[in-house]
Design brief:
The chain is about 30% helix and about 25% strand. By secondary structure, the protein is α/β, with parallel strands linked by helices. The protein is globular, with a radius of gyration of 23 Å. The longest helix has 15 residues.
Length: about 450
């Protein structure tokens, strides 16, 4: 056996970004090792995107909880990554299972075994944040990992957090019969986005029976004879059988030995990367995915492609202006580019124009984005699109939409922002009739005329 084998590239972390980096570099002829201490493939296929969208789809179809769980478990491979690891090995990638730690420049140890490398790519992802609330540590908590992997259906579920993850999970469990309460410190759901998105989604959740406690947060948790009691900072109390924590995530950077490379991020802070995804202040050190603050699988995949090209010497810079932000609820939420709230914080002046989906012929025909009868998902036509133009450039700077499968018909707006297509060209684009995509035509023409 070769002592301290050398790899051209070691990828630390086998999630979405890590697997794509490893594959891309191996296909280019590099000798690559992928280090993963959990499941090869990461959060997305096992504990996030795939299981959550599967359960949401089952809810729209009106399936039973048992059927939905069986379908979810089949899609996630019953949390078995053997097939994925085998495919990577067939592609020439060495899969090293265990915890990796950098011990010196150009050297990493995986559970005590040393390996040498030329380039190191950090793709260690992130982990859920658990609030430091009195009694929380002794309560039966779920993070999204447990909520999307176990077969349990709590009778009373409290979801802490009204962001994308909290909203999706709240809708899943409410759809299958749990008594769901969402606790969110902000005064609205999806607080960083355009106000109408959170307002529309709040209405949909309430109609499904969810209780929304906005503008408050837990102050104390204790066990009772029948479950849990939560005291809220606004004076209210809640009874629950389970608490689901979805208040946010933090990058996994601790314990990696990065200080040996001169990189010392503060606990909870993302790794700072430049436009090529090289870690600032370090040579031959790259990062992609949630560890850099990219909080979606598609953002991680984009960064992975940036890393591959730059490691191969093909300089490529990331453009972060048009990374979609999606909540796959019913109705679904889609946002890209600047939101009005982001613009105000940056001192930018945006022109806004919008249109209601109910005014489209497609909306009147379907009058629903829901599944078959019998489900508890949203069944009335509800939706809107808003477009935001930068007055100084005359270009689209952002967009937001809520409505049936908005993530499918808003892609053209993402392209328009990324490619900086002039508004006069966008306003002259013809959409198929009848489609929800027609909803962007009126606001596009309005913005073009005003600019």
């Amino acid at each position: 056996m070769i002592k301290n084998p050398h790899y051209d590239v070691v990828v630390l972390g086998g999630g979405t970004a890590g697997v794509l980096v490893a594959r891309g570099l191996a296909q280019a002829g590099r000798r690559v090792a992928l280090v993963e201490n959990r499941l090869v493939g990461g959060e997305s296929p096992y504990f996030a995107c795939v299981p959550s969208k599967s359960l949401l789809h089952s809810a729209r179809r009106g399936e039973s909880w048992e059927t939905a769980i069986a379908r979810r478990d089949e899609l996630t491979g019953h949390l078995d990554d053997a097939a994925t690891a085998a495919r990577l090995a067939e592609e020439g990638i060495a899969v090293l299972r265990g915890y990796g730690q950098v011990t010196a420049p150009g050297r990493i140890e995986v559970d005590g075994t040393g390996y040498e490398y030329t380039d190191l790519v950090i793709c260690t992802g992130g982990e859920p944040v658990v609030p430091g609330v009195e009694g929380m540590a002794d309560a039966p908590l779920w993070t999204s990992d447990e909520a999307l992997a176990v077969p349990d259906l709590p009778r009373r579920l409290v979801v802490l957090g009204g962001g994308p993850v909290g909203c999706e999970l709240a809708q899943i469990y409410a759809a299958f019969g749990s008594q769901v309460t969402v606790v969110e410190p902000a005064e609205s759901l999806l607080a960083d986005e355009a106000a109408f998105l959170g307002e529309t989604l709040a209405g949909a959740l309430r109609r499904m029976g969810a209780d929304l406690r906005l503008g408050t947060e837990p102050a104390k948790v204790e066990r009772t004879g029948s479950g849990l009691r939560l005291w809220l900072t606004d004076g209210g109390t809640l009874e629950a059988d389970r608490i689901l924590v979805a208040v946010g995530r933090r990058p996994r950077t601790e314990g990696l030995g990065l200080e040996t490379l001169g990189v010392r991020p503060a606990p909870g802070d993302p790794l700072p990367v430049d436009e090529t995804c090289r870690v600032s202040g370090a040579e031959h050190l790259w990062a992609a995915g949630e560890v850099t603050g990219a909080d979606t699988a598609h953002a991680a995949a984009y960064q992975a492609r940036i890393v591959v090209d730059n490691v191969l010497g093909k300089r490529r810079e990331a453009d972060r202006r048009a990374i979609p932000r999606v909540v796959f609820t019913s109705p679904s939420v889609y946002a890209v580019g600047l939101s009005p709230r982001h613009a105000r914080k940056s001192g930018l002046e945006l022109l806004s124009a919008g249109y209601d989906l109910a005014a489209t012929v497609r909306g009147r025909i379907e009058d629903s984005g829901s599944g078959r009868p019998g489900g508890r998902m949203e069944s009335r036509m509800e939706g809107r699109v808003e477009l935001y133009a930068d007055r100084s450039t005359g270009l689209l700077a952002g967009a937001a939409a809520v409505g049936p499968y908005a993530e499918e018909w808003m892609g053209e707006v993402t392209l328009a922002i990324r490619a900086q297509i002039p508004l006069r060209v966008l306003a002259d684009t013809v959409h198929a009739f009848p489609t929800y995509g027609e909803a962007v035509e009126t606001p596009l023409r309005e913005l073009a005329e005003r600019l």
